[in-house]
Write a structure and sequence with these properties.
The structure holds 2 protein chains of 2 kinds.
Chain A lengths: L9 E11 L5 E12 L4 E5 L6 H8 L7 E5 L6 E4 L11 H8 L5 H10 L15 H14 L4 E5 L7 H17 L4 E5 L2 H7 L2 E5 L6 E6 L9 H16 L2
Chain B lengths: L1 H21 L7 H14 L1 H33 L1 H16 L2 H12 L3 H25 L3 H9 L4 H39 L4 H10 L3 H30 L8
Helix pairs in contact in B: 2-10, 3-4, 3-6, 3-8, 4-6, 5-6, 5-8, 6-8, 8-9, 8-10, 9-10
The chains are: A alpha/beta, B mainly alpha.
């Protein structure tokens, strides 16, 4: 963790992360992976399934201390995280779920956050009464409510149908534009990464390292379809180059 | 509800028929038992004996549940605690209730403390095992969520851990309550000068089946009231978030 206020950037330098395999020996998952992300930037880690993206995110979140290397969280290191599954407390209402993670949140903030994510009608509902799409929104609301110094998103739209995923992605884009927060998104979906991120990090297959770093020049709202198409081509060439 | 009543009526009918066949000395009919309950209630000894037994049940039950929950939680969450505690648990689980009671009376005398401790010690390992099972099945994902969002230890316990343990605690409480009151009766029979168990012991020596049934059924009624008005509403409250099955 960073000394308070010294580093506003997210700095990640992992020399090695290995698991001991069940058959004996070790399995290297991450090796020589470094990247950094500026304050208020949205970074996307894009890589094939099983390349250790979730492991990387868990290390950054402080859930896995068994690795060699350093992670410096921005500012005070207050984290907001959206896991692959919503991970809500089924025995607490939506509002209570959010308030438990973010005790400092005011009524006004909560009301506007719930409105922005289309959750206003469900404040007093329990998670078991919601669809997966709604539950994911609550997980997003919870992560934003803590006013994080770093927002971590682990495949936040996986297993939603395309239309819903696109809508939720747009809502998320609007949220990070309205209240800039350093965000790290993990995904295997290039479209999702292009739509949301300012900076792409392409990851290699295991043992994972950063193959290429691609800044996306325009702000999210001003990207034209032509630009995006050109960008996709660029990524495809990079991915083939390996 | 109607079926429940019907079943109860059926039980009373079977009892009456049985009483006719066996004779009043072996099995008195429901009316004579009811009459004795009323006369004992009027003399005040019913309330006194029920009260003192209920008090012993409450204290022993609370002790065993509190200690068992803490130990079960520790053993379910930390491997070292499990390794240390498990042999003790196996020994306690397999010691017959009677042995614990007799030893408690021998070592601590025929005292209230010995009686309560013996009952609590009988219930303790079962509560521990049940809560340990719950602690082992705690959702790691929710733990991680609480850790990432830096929830306080108190909030984690109250909002993340305890709700997951609730079904296990409820099961332990349910089975515990009935077990504890049965053991309290033996403890009273062997070494206490009052309570339902003592009354039943006296009635046994006089071969007074009416008195045995009167006290036993009166106490069952008390436990039924506790179950209906305390345990069940509590259970409904802690499971209110579950979508109801139609």
């Amino acid at each position: 963790m960073s000394p308070a206020g010294v580093l506003a950037r997210l700095e990640v330098a992992i020399r090695q992360k290995a698991y001991s395999a069940a058959t004996g020996g070790t399995l290297r998952v991450i090796e020589g992976l470094t990247f950094s992300l500026g304050k208020g930037e949205v970074g996307a880690l894009v890589g094939p399934s099983g390349c250790g993206k979730t492991t990387l995110l868990r290390i950054i979140a402080g859930l896995d201390a068994d690795y060699e290397g350093e992670v410096h969280l921005p500012d005070h290191g207050r984290l907001g995280m959206v896991f692959q599954e919503p991970r809500l407390l089924p025995w607490r209402t939506l509002e209570h779920n959010v308030r438990l993670a973010a005790p400092q949140v005011t009524d006004d903030e909560l009301t506007s956050l719930f409105a922005a994510l289309g959750l206003s009608a469900h404040r007093q509902h329990y998670p078991g009464e919601l669809s997966l799409g709604l539950a994911r929104r609550v997980a997003l609301a919870r992560a934003f409510a803590v006013n994080p110094d770093l927002l971590l998103l682990d495949e936040p739209f996986v297993s939603l149908d395309d239309a819903l995923a696109t809508r939720l992605r747009d809502e998320l884009a609007e949220l990070v534009t309205r209240r800039p927060v350093t965000t790290l998104l993990v995904t295997h979906n290039v479209e999702e990464a292009i739509a949301l991120a300012d900076r792409l990090f392409l990851l290699s297959p295991s043992p994972t390292r950063v193959m290429a770093e691609l800044p996306i020049p325009n702000p999210r709202s001003k990207r034209t379809p032509e630009e995006l198409a050109a960008f996709r081509g660029q990524i495809a060439r990079k991915l083939k180059g390996v | 509800m109607a079926l429940r009543l019907l079943s109860l009526v059926l039980m009373l009918v079977a009892w009456s028929i049985g009483a006719q066949l066996a004779g009043p000395r072996m099995l008195p009919d429901p009316q004579s038992v009811a009459l004795l309950v009323i006369s004992e209630a009027q003399s005040g000894s019913l309330a006194f004996n029920l009260g003192i037994t209920l008090l012993r049940v409450t204290v022993a039950f609370t002790l065993a549940m509190a200690l068992g929950s803490v130990m079960g939680l520790l053993m379910g969450r930390f491997r070292a605690a499990d390794s240390i505690g498990d042999p003790w648990l196996v020994v306690l689980l397999n010691l017959p209730a009677l042995v614990i009671i007799v030893l408690a009376y021998v070592w601590a005398g025929l005292t209230e403390t010995a009686a309560i401790a013996a009952v609590a010690l009988n219930k303790l390992p079962i509560a521990t095992v049940m809560v340990r099972e719950g602690a082992r099945s705690l959702d790691r994902g929710l733990d991680e969520m609480a850790q990432v969002f830096r929830m306080s230890a108190w909030a984690q316990m109250r909002h993340v851990v305890l709700p997951q343990l609730a079904p296990y605690l409820a099961a332990a409480a349910r089975s515990g309550l009935s077990l504890v009151w049965k053991i309290v009766l033996i403890v009273e029979l062997l070494g206490r000068p009052n309570g339902v168990g003592f009354e039943i012991g006296t009635a046994f020596q006089l071969f007074d089946v009416t008195r045995i049934l009167a006290y036993a059924l009166a106490f069952v009624a008390v436990m039924l009231v506790i179950e209906t008005f305390l345990v069940q509403p509590l259970e409904r409250h802690v499971t209110r978030w579950r979508p109801r099955t139609a």
